[in-house]
C-alpha cells in the first residue's frame, strides 16, 4: 500500500466515527449558522482534537467563511480540511550522521516496537544503525528490545538488568564509533512517576554523550499511545517539561476512534508529529504527512 492507503487503513476507527458525523452535519444544514459551528465543535472535541485546538480551528473556519463568503456546509467542510492540515504541517524528521536518538515515553506506549520500526526505516535509506538498551529498570526490557533488534537486523548493545543506563549508553557510543554507525538509537526508562530521577538520568546520559561523542547530534523523540487520548497529551507535557523533546512518535492509531489527538499534540504542545504507527509489523510506522492524514481522517 502507498502512504495514503496505509494511513487511511490505520485511521479506520477514527474515520468511521468522524467522517460519519461530518456527513450528518453537512446533510443537516442548508446554510452556516451558530448551530452549525456549535455542532462542528462537538464533533472535533469528540474526536479528541482538544478544546484549545478545536476553538482555534473553528475560529479560523468562521473567519475564512466570512472573508470568502462561504455559505455552503460542504464547502465549509473542505475549508476545514485545509485549516487542520495547516495546524499540523511540519518539516519531516531530519536524519543526521552521526546521531544519538533518544526514545522516551512511559512503559506500555510502544517504545520497543517503535525502536525496531525506526531502525528498519533508517536502514532502508542506507543508514547504519545500532540499538542501545538503556532501559535497565524494567524487567525483560532488554530481552524484548533484542527481539525487535533481530527483526530489524540491527546490532544491540545491552548490559544486565539494573545496570547504570549511562554506562550502557557509554558502551553504545563506543560501539557506534568503532563500527562507524550513522545512528545510535537509545531506549530509555519510562518512569514518569518520579520526574526528578528521570530528569537526572537523562542529564547523566547527556553528559556521557557530550564527553564521549561531542560530534554526534543528539535528538529525543517522545512516544505517545494514541489510545490514551488526552492523558497522552498530559504525559507529553510532563516529559516536555523535563526533557528537550524534538518531536513525537504517535503509536496505536489503529486502536482508537480518537485519532484527532495528533492535531491537539501539534497545536497545544508545539511539537511536530514525525512518525505514526498502526500495528506490529516492521513497516507499520510511517512518516507523518499532514495532508494525507487529514484526507484519510475525512474519508
TrEMBL record:
- Membrane topology of the entry: Peripheral membrane protein
Q: Which GO terms describe its cellular component?
A: cytoplasm; plasma membrane
Query: Where are the annotated coiled coils located?
Result: none
Reactions performed catalytically: GTP + H2O = GDP + phosphate + H(+)
Q: Which GO terms describe its molecular function?
A: GTP binding; GTPase activity; signal recognition particle binding
For biological process, the GO terms are: SRP-dependent cotranslational protein targeting to membrane
Quaternary data: Part of the signal recognition particle protein translocation system, which is composed of SRP and FtsY.
Main location as per UniProt: membrane
Protein source organism: Candidatus Pullichristensenella excrementigallinarum
**What does it do?**
Involved in targeting and insertion of nascent membrane proteins into the cytoplasmic membrane. Acts as a receptor for the complex formed by the signal recognition particle (SRP) and the ribosome-nascent chain (RNC).
Hey, which family's this protein in?
Belongs to the GTP-binding SRP family. FtsY subfamily.
Matching entries from Pfam families are given as: SRP54, SRP54_N
Q: Which enzyme class?
A: hydrolase
Q: Which residues form the SRP54-type proteins GTP-binding domain?
A: 272-285
Compartment annotation: Cell membrane; Cytoplasm
The Enzyme Commission number assigned here is 3.6.5.4
**Protein known as:** Signal recognition particle receptor FtsY
Keyword Membrane present in the record's keywords: the answer is yes
| Keywords assigned by UniProt, alphabetized | Cell membrane, Cytoplasm, GTP-binding, Hydrolase, Membrane, Nucleotide-binding, Receptor
Q: Which positions are annotated as binding GTP?
A: 105-112, 187-191, 251-254
InterPro entries to which the protein is assigned, alphabetical: AAA+_ATPase, P-loop_NTPase, Signal_recog_particl_SRP54_hlx, SR_rcpt_FtsY, SRP/SRP_N, SRP54_GTPase_dom, SRP54_N_sf
The record's SUPFAM superfamilies line, in alphabetical order, gives: Domain of the SRP/SRP receptor G-proteins (SSF47364), P-loop containing nucleoside triphosphate hydrolases (SSF52540)
Q: Which domain of life is it from?
A: Bacteria
Amino acid at each position: 500500500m502507498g502512504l495514503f492507503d496505509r494511513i487511511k487503513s490505520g485511521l479506520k476507527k477514527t474515520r468511521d466515527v468522524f467522517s460519519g458525523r461530518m456527513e450528518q452535519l453537512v446533510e443537516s444544514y442548508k446554510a452556516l449558522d451558530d448551530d452549525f459551528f456549535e455542532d462542528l465543535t462537538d464533533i472535533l472535541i469528540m474526536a479528541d482534537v482538544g478544546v484549545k485546538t478545536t476553538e482555534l480551528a473553528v475560529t479560523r473556519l468562521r473567519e475564512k467563511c466570512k472573508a470568502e463568503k462561504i455559505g455552503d456546509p460542504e464547502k465549509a467542510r473542505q475549508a476545514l480540511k485545509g485549516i487542520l492540515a495547516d495546524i499540523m504541517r511540519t518539516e519531516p524528521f531530519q536524519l543526521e550522521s552521526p546521531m544519538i536518538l533518544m526514545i522516551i515515553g512511559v512503559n506500555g506506549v510502544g517504545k520497543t516496537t517503535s525502536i525496531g520500526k525506526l531502525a528498519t526505516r533508517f536502514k532502508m535509506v542506507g543508514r547504519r544503525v545500532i540499538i542501545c538498551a538503556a532501559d535497565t529498570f524494567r524487567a525483560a526490557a532488554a530481552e524484548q528490545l533484542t527481539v525487535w533488534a533481530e527483526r530489524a537486523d540491527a546490532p544491540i548493545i545491552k548490559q544486565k538488568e539494573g545496570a547504570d543506563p549511562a554506562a550502557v549508553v557509554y558502551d553504545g557510543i563506543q560501539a557506534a564509533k568503532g563500527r562507524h554507525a550513522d545512528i545510535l538509537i537509545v531506549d530509555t526508562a519510562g518512569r514518569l512517576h518520579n520526574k526528578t530521577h528521570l530528569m537526572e538520568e537523562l542529564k547523566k546520559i547527556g553528559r556521557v554523550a557530550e564527553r564521549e561523542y561531542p560530534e554526534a547530534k543528539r535528538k529525543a523523540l517522545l512516544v505517545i499511545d494514541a489510545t490514551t487520548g488526552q492523558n497522552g497529551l498530559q504525559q507529553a507535557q510532563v516529559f516536555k517539561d523535563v526533557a528537550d523533546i524534538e518531536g513525537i512518535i504517535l503509536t496505536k492509531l489503529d486502536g482508537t476512534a480518537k485519532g484527532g489527538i495528533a492535531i491537539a499534540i501539534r497545536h497545544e504542545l508545539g511539537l511536530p508529529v514525525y512518525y505514526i504507527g498502526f500495528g506490529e509489523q516492521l513497516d507499520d510506522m510511517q512518516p507523518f504527512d499532514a495532508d494525507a492524514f487529514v484526507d484519510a481522517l475525512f474519508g
